[in-house]
Amino acid sequence: MPQRSPIRLVLPVLLAGVWVALYANLARISDALTFGWLGLKPGGHLAEAIRFFLFDTPKVLLLLVLIVFVIGIIRTYFAPERTRKLLEGRSLFLGHVMAAALGIVTPFCSCSAVPLFLGFVEAGIPLGITFSFLIAAPMINEVAVVLLFGLFGWKTALLYMGTGLAIAIMAGWVIGRLRLERWVEPWVYEMKGGVSSLEEGRTTFADRVAAGKAAVREIVGKVWPYVVIGIAVGAAVHGYVPENFMASIMGKSAWWSVPLSVLVGVPLYSNAAGIIPIVQALLEKGASLGTALAFMMSVIGLSFPEAVILRKVLRIPLLLTFFGIVAAGIMMVGFVFNFIF
């Protein structure tokens, strides 16, 4: 058995040490750059915006690299064919729960909806269970969970994950009870052999680590511009938008703030890494938690590009029903959390 190079053994430890050191000192570094190197005075609009940007950008990117690497390894255990087989033959209730739970850990977004939908329908999985999976996959984003944990704490992250699961399970159950199979495009039921079988083979841990590195290169390489743009917008909100203004629009006192936030969020298209820094800034400026959470869920879970993709396999009545039920669930979450908190 060939011995591993000492450099290959030590390098992961060094990289982990650098990650921890950077993450632990972000506040000091951002303060030094803002007030020392740039010479800005604390409390000014520009100073607060720049400090927000210099602190949150590396924080979000560091968290993103870590979680994408870990999830990249986990995803090697959840190929599409294996996911499909896990859902076959389950009872309706268990099927909805399993489908929503699998949506959290599997690497599928709205862009993957068409091939997944075809594979699930071909396997005879009920339509409602299929929708539970398709709702949970983009909405309960693993990157969002980790970023929420890092920015707001474990309670908010758990809140987001729990409400997202509830929406996915209940929306899928409602769609299943409505018996809307007739609104699926006929060719979907006529197709044969839509999903190829997963090639069996032994996968070593080194292969899984390599998959984690590849996920970091692919995903972080694609989303980092959205992260920077999202944080820049959040920094502008943080530094320049008056607190009373945001509180009047997205506060608890405005009963229409939750439906308005959902209506505004649906046409937008962003990933979790890009929208969460904006939500953070909105909360700091007086937006209520329920309204901000509804806005974030509508941006992540519902979008115009998703509607275009799903239109390939769903007829308009079912597509509108899907969006309407999910939007109603998101608004319910917003109202409940505004009432509780």
Descriptive report:
By secondary structure, the protein is an all-alpha fold. It has helices at residues 6-24, 26-37, 45-74, 80-87, 92-105, 113-122, 127-139, 142-152, 154-177, 186-190, 205-240, 243-250, 257-265, 272-284, 289-301, 304-310, 316-340. Helix 13 (257-265) runs parallel beside helix 15 (289-301).
Question: Any chance you could write out the topology, listing elements then pairs?
Answer:
Blueprint: H1 6-24, H2 26-37, H3 45-74, H4 80-87, H5 92-105, H6 113-122, H7 127-139, H8 142-152, H9 154-177, H10 186-190, H11 205-240, H12 243-250, H13 257-265, H14 272-284, H15 289-301, H16 304-310, H17 316-340
Helix pairs in contact: 2-3, 3-8, 3-11, 5-7, 5-9, 7-9, 7-15, 8-9, 8-14, 9-17, 11-14, 13-15, 14-15, 15-17
Describe the global form: flat
> Into which percentage range does the β-strand content fall?
under 5%
- Fraction of residues in helices? over 70%
Report the sheet with the most strands, covering strand number, pairing sense and barrel closure: none
What pattern of helices and strands is seen along the backbone? HHHHHHHHHHHHHHHHH
Radius of gyration: 22 Å
**Oligomeric status of the shown chains?**
single chain
Distinct helical segment count:
17
Stretches where pLDDT is under 50 for at least 5 consecutive residues are: 192-200
How much is the average pLDDT? 75
Strand pairing plus helix content: what structural class? mainly alpha
Instruction: Determine the N-to-C terminus distance.
Output: 59 Å
Total strands: the figure is 0
